[in-house]
Amino acid sequence: MLPVLIRRVWQAFLQLNLYKNSSSNDQTACKEYLATRIYVCCLAIAIIIVTITTSLITRLVNKIEYSPSFERFLVLTSKYPNSVHCPCTKVGIGYDAFVATQVRFHQVCSSQFVEQTWIDMMFAAQNRTLISAGDFRTRLIFFWQLIAGFCTISNRTWSEVVVAFDATQILSQLAMSEDLMRTQVYVDLNKQIAMVQSAFIRDLRSIRQTFRGNQMVSGLGSNFYMKYSAGDDTQFQPVPQMAPQTYNNCTCLNIAG
User: Fold this and answer.
1) pTM tops 0.70, yes or no
2) Where do the TM regions start and end (predicted)?
């Protein structure tokens, strides 16, 4: 059936004459058939080219979806990452609405060594025995007091950082993809952390400069101590002087440590 149909179409093509008129004769018929075949072939080729070109062209179709779900939004952003535009009902939203921030401190800050009960017990034990100020047990009491103070400051400081970060708003007129929002969250959080670290280091340097400039002496004499040297006269008259303690060629007179 198909070969017969192809044969009939081919015969019709050979007998097709688009340029036949009343003045046609046997001499002009050959030219008319040739011109018709050339025209039909060119027309077919042009139609094929236009069809292929049209099928390869990407056409942009605008489609509106009202109030899509979160899962639907993820599907659309993964499928059309550069063409999805989802206007937000609010231009700004705080990080506390969708970000949970948790700070983990060193385990020593949650141990019993920084509890006031432990420090008071060490003070009571020291009062019952005669221990010199240079004994490591005496210094250990004040050491744990210092660590407890640092833990308290760190806890309060980072709690303020979390509060400030949660109050920070992310501003955007269009809904962001998850990756872009995650990057923005890390950038803002690291900015808050860097600001607090800079302020904390600045305060520590100010304290060190104050101790160095005023030569403040700790109660244990761990940074400066008093020594006596001979005077300029012939009689031995000790002259008290403050001298810095040296630890591995490092003294409190050196701000850099």
Assistant:
1) no
2) 38-61
